[in-house]
Amino acid sequence: MEGSELNEFDIRLGKANDLRKMKINPYANRFERTHTSKQALAEGEKSKLREVADIVKSPAKNPMKICGRLMTLREHGKLTFGHIQDFYGKIQICFMEDLIGKEKYNLLKKVDMADFIGVEGELFRTRHGEITLLVYEFTMLSKALRALPEKWHGIKDQETKYRQRYLDTTMNRESLERFLLRSNLIKILREFYWAEGFIEIETPVLESVSSGAAAKPFITHHNALDIDVYLRIAAGELWQKRAIVGGFEKTFEVARCFRNEGMDPSHLQEFTMIEHYAAYWDYEDNMKFTERMFEYFLKKLLGTTKIKVKDREGKEMDLDFKTPWPRKKFVELIKQDCGIDILKYDNAKDLLKEIKKKKIFIEKAETLGYGSLSDHLYKQVSRPKLIQPTFVIEHPLSTKPLSRKNDDDPRLCDTFQLLVNTWEIINAYGEIVDPIDQRERFEAQVRAKDAGDEEAMMMDEEYLTAMEHGMPCISGWGMGIDRLVTLLAGQDNLKDSVLFPLMRPL
User: Fold this and answer.
1) Backbone angles phi, psi at 250, to 5 degrees
2) Can you list the domains of the chain with their CATH numbers?
């Protein structure tokens, strides 16, 4: 701690010790609250409030009890005003020496801003019309040894906000509301799933085989079994499909996932996904379900299908989620944006030659298999142009190792992604249910991994065994909650939508 901060800390610690000497515990066990700040203000608006003189003369026998963090404190002789903040908002409080007595009033010298206190009293209106609690009694609940930032809105260091999120949400109501929005969103999505006949299940976080996406996993060691295991990279895709083999028909999971990859404003290594799988659906059913879901939660959460966001240059614009959304074919998008018809090439080597001929740079392109190379090309030339909600459909077969072949063109698969403001929000498949086809796809992925593609999938023999017992037609998808919240909240960095993002230690 620096000098001034150290001095402040010592002063506050001294006050805590003084309270202990006075037989007052600066860290109370509990406080019985009767009203939140919001409830108190609402009651004050609808009630006829007494004058201060009448309250002092005859205090109420059943005082209102409020608690929270003390955000302001200003003394005016025998009067001291302050504001208490709880989760629901703020309310002004007033201490009068004539009401609480000199001894108790002097205890305020041991109280500082940022302390948590409990107060009991009665509401009145100040001359300026502000509803205020006139305090009969107060209790120290928790002594803060560090002061709150004085000018948090003036702090431009985003990293400090991420590292000390508790200060961000204390000082910035907008930040707190963002995480409340996130919580409400997940609640509404769960409501929608249950209303649509889905069952929420839980699948393993630690896997002996990493599967469910093209991604690099985190590896750890399981001491009891003496095996290396992987933190899941998807929300239990192959496990949910096992559940459908076992008799479930519609499943979903809200899950933390982990990918040991690069970090940027649209990617985090630890993130939240929702995945679902529905038996007897195709990917067309799933697209209709997606549009229905978005209309439902947007209207319930925000009251509108339009939201404001910033583009990559920081310019504000409207996104309109009114359905139906346009559908654009993956192959045609790439052809349109850079002139390369990826279906003309059946291997990574030849495709890479054409990419280099067009002077398009893709990092570590030489290590990528055909599927990963096609996907990286799309991300380079096409995805940055997709702003309004758009379904990108029918990806090349090699880019989606778990998706079924398209009936009209077996080089493609039954897939869609939802793109919004250049971000992939949803990745969806008509799932492979043919175990022979799936085995061949896994074998191709193994060859790509052996050739250096770290994002290629592993062989999963246990999953193939489950498929061989019979799997109905299925469509499923995964949606990134962090990205969705970031969009809805008008932010441009996923860390602004994650309460406690992982940071490099100082």
Assistant:
1) -135, 115
2) 3-148 (2.40.50.140), 167-326+388-497 (3.30.930.10)
